[in-house]
Recover the amino acids of this structure.
């Protein structure tokens, strides 16, 4: 099911390009809705817009238990856990806004919304959210806004619910992108990522939009996905808000290196394949 129109754009308003002067915890399964009449549909594929939380005797003095010895005298740093939105079978849920404006709340008990978003963004792309949890009246969603990892609550009656089997996992150190569908690994692609000074942000994000640049042989290749991630260094870039993208390239020799301003580059054949199958809201998990 394809419903959006194509929008051609000369450049992306994102912190994407670089290197050659180039210019968005515990695994928890979503709760099943009590409303049996609402059955999630499969998410529509994306059209280009041109954390998956002793007793002792009275006469005897108890000695404190010896502290366990640390190996090497150092403690390993703790890594923040990420709540993954997909179930054990690899299926995640996505919602599309169905009303003209959707109110986003900090909690279902909040009196006023913290944010109001239009049904379509400034380029005309259908507004979609990756779902973190679902109840009868409310949906907790990941937001495409700063800071990275922001979440909010929207009323269930304001959205349509879909299921999605696809997800992407990016490994920064190995420069690999893994395409999954359910429990099956479909493909692995080499990627270029951000430099040390303009790193690709780590965390759980999702596909916000798909753009088709004017020139398929240009900086961004034939397609570019806008992600919900934003650069942690660049607050503004190329006229945009520093949104991170996943796109093609006209410099395939730089694939496998740290070269961009934060975006993820793949070869053009790979981005064409992804553009043909991934729906809005597809999870993108970026790891070290």
């Amino acid at each position: 099911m394809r419903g959006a129109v194509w929008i051609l754009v000369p450049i992306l308003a994102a912190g994407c390009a670089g290197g050659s002067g180039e210019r968005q915890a515990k695994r928890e399964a979503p709760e099943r809705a009590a409303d049996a009449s609402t059955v999630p549909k499969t998410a529509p594929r994306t059209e280009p817009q041109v954390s998956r939380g002793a007793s002792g005797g009275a006469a005897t003095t108890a000695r404190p238990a010896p502290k366990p010895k640390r190996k090497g005298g150092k403690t390993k740093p703790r890594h923040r856990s990420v709540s993954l939105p997909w179930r054990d079978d690899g299926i995640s849920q996505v919602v599309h806004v169905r009303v003209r404006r959707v109110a986003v709340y900090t909690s279902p008990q909040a009196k006023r919304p913290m944010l109001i978003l239009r049904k379509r963004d400034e380029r005309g792309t259908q507004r979609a959210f990756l779902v973190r949890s679902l109840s009868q009246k409310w949906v907790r969603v990941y937001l495409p806004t700063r800071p990275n990892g922001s979440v909010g609550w929207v009323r269930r009656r304001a959205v349509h619910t879909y299921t999605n089997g696809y997800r992407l996992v990016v490994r920064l150190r190995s420069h690999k992108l893994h395409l999954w569908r359910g429990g099956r690994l479909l493909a692995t692609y080499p990627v270029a990522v951000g430099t040390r000074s303009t790193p690709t942000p780590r965390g759980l994000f999702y596909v916000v939009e798909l753009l088709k640049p004017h020139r398929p042989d240009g900086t961004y290749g034939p397609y570019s996905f806008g992600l919900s991630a934003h650069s942690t260094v660049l607050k503004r870039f190329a006229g945009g808000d520093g949104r991170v993208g996943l796109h093609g390239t006209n410099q395939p020799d730089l694939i496998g290196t740290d070269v961009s301003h934060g975006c993820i580059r793949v070869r053009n054949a790979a981005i064409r394949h992804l553009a043909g199958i991934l729906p809005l809201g597809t999870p993108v998990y970026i790891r070290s």
In short: The longest strand covers residues 203-213. The two ends are 34 Å apart (CA to CA). The chain is about 5% helix and 35% strand.
